Amino acid sequence: MEVKMNELLSILSGMIIAYMNYINSKLGLVYGNNLSLVIIHLVGLICIVPFCIKGITVIKGIPLWCYLGGGIGILTIIFCNSSIPVLGVTVQMAISLLGQTLSSVIIDHFGLFGFEKYPLTKNKMISIGLIIIGTAVMILW
Amino acid sequence: MVIGIILGFASGVTIVFGRTLNAKLTSYSNLRYSTLFNYIIGIIGSIIIVLLTKTTLPETLPDFKMSDIFIYLGGAIGVVMVMANSYLTTKLSSMVFTLLLFCAQLFTGIAIDYFISGDYSNGKVIGGLIILAGLWISNKKEITK
């Protein structure tokens, strides 16, 4: 039997992501939102540094706004850590997914950040509708 | 509840914008470079927030138990997930990857909610399946023009 390694890895990463969101929010409850931000980024930085031991040279000519991803990541952790204790992991995930889908659709439709334009399709609209309905079912049931 | 919903939604919006900017940075360099700078900018920003808000250590820290060490590992897991995702997106179709990832997140989330707060409803499973259908349609090839 062929072992579908990549499929298994995808499932594993989904499970780990859900768990990560939960432990981050737990850390936030212990240390408060602000200090937990520092801890989360410090631990991450310690983990990435060994991969960069051979040296990384700062590449010139990259627009400065491209570096803002890390700053926006801070907001993501703040928003996650403040909403998970209220909503629980599952409902928070569903609502976050709705936010992700809508913003990707907007970026694709208008071709923001210099990406190629992918106009909104019928399937995408049905998909957004189903995600809204699914999320509502989760909250209201 | 309403504020929770707004913040949850906002987390999704910032995930996409953060990921998009990191992808842009990767396109100018490589994954190692963009991940490193993601965390460097992240830690500088977090320290600024701590200083601006004059945050101090909480007065009562829980007694440190080895069994609690896992709550400190979120940042480490984040790094591994960035690497794993960028590898998997090149190996699997985005349809398969998205569906498997969400499916696993959904059922793990339901399990965590159940074991942590005894919180379970059929609505979570049914709502999750409806969302899954939505993700499937969005990744399906357009049949009708």
Topology of helices and strands:
The complex is a heterodimer of chains A (141) and B (145).
Chain A: H1 5-48, H2 69-87, H3 89-110, H4 122-140
Chain B: H1 2-28, H2 31-52, H3 74-91, H4 94-117, H5 122-139
Helix pairs in contact in B: 1-2, 4-5
Quick overview:
Chain A has 141 residues and is mainly alpha-helical. Chain A contains 4 helices and no strands.
Structure explained in plain terms:
The complex is a heterodimer of chains A (141) and B (145). Chain A is mostly helical and 141 residues long. Helix content of chain A is 74%, strand content 0%. Chain A is built from four helices and no strands. The longest helix of chain A has 44 residues, at 5-48. Chain A is globular, with a radius of gyration of 19 Å. Chain A starts with a helix and ends with a helix. With 145 residues, chain B is mainly alpha-helical. Chain B has five helices and no strands. In chain B, helix 1 (2-28) crosses helix 2. The interface between A and B is large, with 102 and 100 residues.
Key words describing this protein structure:
heterodimer, A: 141 residues, B: 145 residues, mainly alpha
